Every structure is written in structure tokens, then in C-alpha cells.
Amino acid sequence: MKLKELILDLENLDPELTIYIDGAWSPESNILLCFEPEDGSSPKEYEYFLEVFILQELFESTPDITVERIIQYALYDA
User: Fold this and answer.
1) How far apart are CA 45 and CA 29, in angstroms?
2) With contact defined as beta carbons under 8 Å apart, do 21 and 30 qualify?
3) Which of 36, 54, 76, 78 is 20 to 30 A from 67 via CA?
4) How many angstroms separate the CA atoms of 5 and 47, rounded?
């Protein structure tokens, strides 16, 4: 799944899931959704991006937020 595709189905996702992203950090980046392991590790070849509940809260407060702004948030504000 691509990061930009995740946004389309965000309201239906379990808020306990964590989003992991490949190294590109763009709307076209591949992502994985899974529960964060107890040891806090990331899946191989992926980096932590955000928890789903954080992204859901961002959309509640700013419904017109762009994928690029979400990336900026994850990089610098999270």
C-alpha cells in the first residue's frame, strides 16, 4: 500500500496500528500497517512513521491536510 492510499481509508483503520514507511518518505512510499512490537523495532527495510490514531487526530483537526504536510509533521513535529 502507498502512503497516499492510506489516507483514503483512514477512518476505517484500527487506531492501535502503527504506520511504517520505506526510506523514500513521499506520497508514493510503500507503507506497512501493523501493531508495534513490544521491543519497539521496525519491520525490515521500513522506518517508524506515525501511529494511526495520530494521523486520525490530524485529519479531525485539519480535514484538508495534504500528504506532503503529513510527511513534514512526521519528520519534524511528531
Assistant:
1) 12
2) yes
3) 36
4) 18
Residue-range domain boundaries for the chain = 3-76
- Residue 2 is classified by DSSP as B
**What number of other Cβ atoms are within 10 A of residue 42's Cβ?**
16
Give strand pairing partners of 20. Answer: 32, 48
**Do residues 27 and 7 lie in contact, with contact meaning Cβ atoms separated by under 8 Å?**
no
Amino acid symbol at 73:
Y
Global pTM value: 0.90
Q: Please give the order of strands across the beta sheet that includes 18-21.
A: 31-34, 18-21, 47-51
